[in-house]
């Protein structure tokens, strides 16, 4: 084993502990208080290793990115407020539990964000999902809104904003602006993404400090084409092969 390669892990190795000192997080030290990462476990890293690998087939990319999306959506739901709820169990006992406080909806940033809709539907069966299309304006080079369609009562819902890659943060910030123009308060939006670049995360969080960001992994940075490094390439291309 060379000095800079990782130690070998036997197939029978015991579960690896979470890595609270994950070096990926050293890029953002301290992490903005509104940012939450998935537990940085060996299993999670194994999933990311598969989807980052350029040799991974489309089928495997779909399967393993869906697994991460499911974890992210579940983590997003952990951040919704709950209220006391008492039920009676079949034993006749009373259980003092909790229930979700408000209604939610998803909003996917097209086109890559659409890939996260199924993961949200798996856990929130009849959830309403809005769409937003933002692209770079060729004249101004700024992100421009091309299309949006939201549930009509979106202003009274918690919004899970879906986009797998947080690179510069331009599209995500424009999407939040549009949601706020539709009456959704910043603190009712939860932004869920698979991989974040520190640059985009910092810009996004300083602009919207009370909006929670749930990310699976924080990478090293951006290259000169605004791709996340090491990243996984173009998420939409990997997912849809077009
Ligand atoms: N969008 C992608 O799909 N990949 C990146 O690396 C950055 C933005």
Which ligands are bound?
Answer: uracil
- The percent of residues in helical segments reads 25-40%
Total of helices: 6
Count all strands and give the number. 12
| Beta-strand residue percentage | 25-35%
| Distance N to C terminus | 39 Å
Counting copies of identical and different chains, the oligomeric state is single chain
Major sheet attributes: 8 strands, mixed
Q: Overall mean pLDDT score?
A: 91
Pattern of helices and strands: EHHEEEHEEEEHEHEEEH
Output the radius of gyration. Answer: 19 Å
Structural class designation: alpha/beta
Uncertain segments are: none
Shape: globular
Describe it.
It is a single chain. The chain has 242 residues and is α/β, with parallel strands linked by helices. It has six helices and twelve strands. The strands form three sheets. Strands 1, 4, 5, 6, 7, 8, 9 and 10 form an eight-stranded mixed beta sheet that branches. Strands 2-3 form a two-stranded antiparallel sheet. It has a two-stranded antiparallel ribbon with strand order 11-12. Helix 1 packs across helix 2. The longest helix has 21 residues. The mean pLDDT is 91. InterPro entries: PRTase-like (IPR029057), PRTase_dom (IPR000836). GO terms for molecular function: GTP binding; uracil phosphoribosyltransferase activity. Its EC number is 2.4.2.9.
């Amino acid at each position: 084993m060379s000095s800079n390669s990782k130690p070998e892990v036997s197939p029978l190795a015991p579960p690896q502990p979470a890595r609270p000192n994950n070096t990926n997080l050293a890029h953002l030290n301290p992490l903005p208080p509104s940012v939450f990462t998935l537990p940085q476990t060996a299993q999670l890293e194994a999933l990311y290793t598969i989807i980052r690998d350029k040799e991974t087939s489309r089928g495997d990319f779909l399967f393993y990115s869906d697994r991460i999306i499911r974890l992210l959506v579940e983590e997003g739901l952990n951040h919704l407020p709950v209220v006391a709820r008492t039920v009676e169990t079949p034993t006749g006992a009373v259980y003092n539990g909790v229930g979700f406080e408000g209604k939610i909806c998803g909003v996917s940033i097209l086109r890559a964000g659409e890939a996260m809709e199924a993961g949200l539907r798996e856990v929130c069966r009849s959830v309403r999902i809005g769409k937003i299309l933002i692209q770079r304006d060729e004249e101004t080079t700024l992100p421009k809104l091309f299309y949006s369609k939201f549930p009509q009562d979106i202003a009274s819902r918690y919004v899970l904003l879906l986009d797998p890659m947080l690179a510069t943060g331009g599209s995500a910030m424009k999407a939040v602006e549009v949601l706020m123009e539709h009456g959704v308060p910043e603190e009712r939006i939860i932004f869920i993404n698979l991989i974040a670049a520190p640059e985009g995360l910092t810009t996004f969080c300083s602009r919207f400090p009370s909006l929670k960001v749930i990310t699976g992994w924080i990478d090293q940075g951006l290259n000169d084409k605004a791709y996340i490094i090491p990243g996984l390439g173009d998420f939409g291309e990997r997912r849809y092969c077009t």
